[in-house]
């Protein structure tokens, strides 16, 4: 196991590696590199995931989050420097930036990055050098924005548990089984919203991506909140929902996958306020939100179904980001949901790496009558 040195990291590895001499008791380790078959070689094989059944982490402890976007200069002068170009994908949601090298940003530029992403919800930066940096350098960059999360059920490159790897190697049967029982691949979610302090400014960078397809869809949950009637907004304020990681852990176990940290459930406000922008967002997602505290089952199901339908159908407050080599997509996980779009059938590999800084415990501010 890697020695993790960042001060932003407080994960405590628990050593459960079998110290028995017996080979049979050694925890199973599965490596994606061993399952490549006749696929086209990965361009970044050192980023392929390893699932180590012996790798365990203690429960996450509370930490004080420093919100980098708060108080950042809204002129973005240290971020959008001369020669850079910012283009909006839609009026409310999503932007693309060219002419900026993220890894070279000053701290002021990084603070402005957090603010820009909070305002635009998702920003794609093109032609970045992240994929070619030593992995630890990319992790250090992400660690500026919050404590780096270790995902409880995914594999990581050996020695870098804080990297969450998104990977389909193009194996057709894997795609068939993914799509086998569903009409659409769309599954809106906010990453690990079940944690007490879910992620904020979140980074995903391309390693291998299909030439066409495999986009990521984002929905702006501030705008989803804004579209509601004043009466419904007022009713939602003060409500809390339970977000649980149990199902994710169970489904990993069913597939003989790993559970590196025991899943937790958290109660979060249904309307949360962003600490940098002050905007209010709907904070529910189909991936993790299970029920509304204090409501009876049918009431909770009905209201959550309405909210999920509202979020899912709002193409007028969604953006779709197209991947390309060298692209780093950054979203604010507090005010968005996202979904992969599994629509390519070419057998091309889709391999991305995520750095997931955790943020504050969600909080709400009072309803303001309109
Ligand atoms: Fe995700």
What is the gist of this entry?
Its cofactor is Fe(2+). With 370 residues, the chain is of the alpha+beta class.
Main sheet properties: 7 strands, mixed
Q: CATH homologous superfamily - what is it?
A: Clavaminate synthase-like
CATH class: Alpha Beta
Computed structural class: alpha+beta
The helix fraction, in percent, is 10-25%
Taking the alpha carbons of the first and last residues, their distance comes to 54 Å
Bound compounds: fe (ii) ion
What is the overall pLDDT average? 93
The CATH architecture is: 4-Layer Sandwich
Strand order of the largest sheet: 5-6-7-17-9-19-8
Number of strands: 19
- Form type: globular
Total helices: the number is 7
CA radius of gyration is 20 Å
The helix-strand sequence is EEEEEEHEHEHEEHHEHEEEEHEEEE
Stretches where pLDDT is under 50 for at least 5 consecutive residues are: 1-8, 15-21
Strand content: 15-25%
Q: What name does CATH use for the topology?
A: Double-stranded beta-helix
How many structural domains? 1
Please explain how this structure is put together.
One of its GO terms (cellular component) is cytoplasm. Keywords: Dioxygenase, Iron, Metal-binding, Oxidoreductase. Residues 87-356 form the TauD/TfdA-like domain. With 370 residues, the chain is an alpha+beta fold. The chain has a single domain (69-355), classed as Clavaminate synthase-like (Double-stranded beta-helix, 4-Layer Sandwich). It is 19% helix and 22% strand. It contains seven helices and 19 strands. It has helices at residues 107-120, 135-143, 172-179, 221-226, 230-236, 246-254, 297-313; strands spanning 13-15, 29-31, 50-52, 55-57, 85-88, 95-98, 122-125, 163-168, 201-208, 216-220, 240-244, 265-269, 271-273, 280-282, 289-292, 318-321, 328-332, 336-340, 350-355. The strands form six sheets. A seven-stranded mixed β-sheet has the order 5-6-7-17-9-19-8. A three-stranded antiparallel β-sheet has the order 16-10-18. Helix 1 (107-120) links the parallel strand 6 and strand 7 (122-125). The longest helix has 17 residues, at 297-313. The termini are far apart. 42% of the residues are buried. It binds fe (ii) ion (FE2). The site of fe (ii) ion (FE2) has 3 residues, from loops. Fe (ii) ion binds at residues 189, 191, 338.
């Amino acid at each position: 196991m890697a020695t993790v040195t960042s001060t932003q990291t407080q994960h405590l590895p628990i050593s459960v590696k079998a110290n028995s001499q017996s080979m049979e008791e050694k925890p199973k380790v599965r490596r994606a590199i061993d399952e490549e078959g006749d696929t086209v070689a990965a361009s970044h094989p050192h980023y392929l995931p390893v699932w180590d059944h012996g790798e365990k982490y203690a429960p996450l402890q509370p930490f004080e989050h420093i919100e980098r976007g708060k108080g950042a200069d809204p002129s973005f002068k240290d971020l959008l420097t001369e020669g850079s170009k910012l283009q909006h994908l839609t009026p409310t949601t999503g932007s693309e930036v060219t002419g900026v090298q993220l890894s070279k940003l000053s701290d002021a530029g990084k603070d402005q990055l957090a603010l820009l992403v909070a305002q635009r919800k998702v920003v794609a930066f093109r032609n970045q050098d992240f994929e070619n940096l030593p992995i630890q350098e990319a992790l250090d960059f992400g660690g500026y924005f919050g404590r780096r999360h270790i995902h409880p059920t995914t594999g990581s490159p050996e020695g870098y548990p804080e990297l969450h790897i998104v990977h389909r190697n193009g194996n057709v049967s894997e795609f068939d089984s993914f799509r086998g029982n569903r009409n659409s691949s769309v599954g809106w979610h906010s990453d690990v919203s079940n944690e007490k302090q879910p992620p904020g400014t979140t980074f995903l960078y391309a390693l291998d991506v299909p030439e066409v397809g495999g986009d990521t869809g984002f929905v702006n949950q501030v705008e989803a909140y804004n579209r509601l009637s004043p009466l419904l907004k007022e009713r939602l304020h003060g409500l809390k929902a339970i977000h649980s990681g149990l199902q994710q852990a169970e489904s990993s176990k069913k597939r003989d996958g790993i559970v590196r940290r025991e899943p937790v459930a958290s109660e979060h406000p249904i309307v949360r306020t962003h600490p940098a922008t002050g905007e209010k967002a709907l904070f529910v997602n189909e991936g993790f939100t299970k029920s509304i505290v204090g409501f009876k089952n049918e009431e909770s199901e009905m209201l959550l179904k309405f909210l999920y339908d509202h979020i899912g159908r709002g193409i007028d407050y969604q953006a779709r980001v197209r991947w390309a080599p060298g692209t780093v997509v950054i979203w604010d996980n507090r005010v968005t949901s996202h979904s992969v779009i599994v629509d390519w059938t070419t057998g091309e590999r889709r391999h991305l790496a995520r750095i997931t800084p955790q943020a504050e415990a969600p909080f709400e501010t009072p309803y303001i009558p309109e």
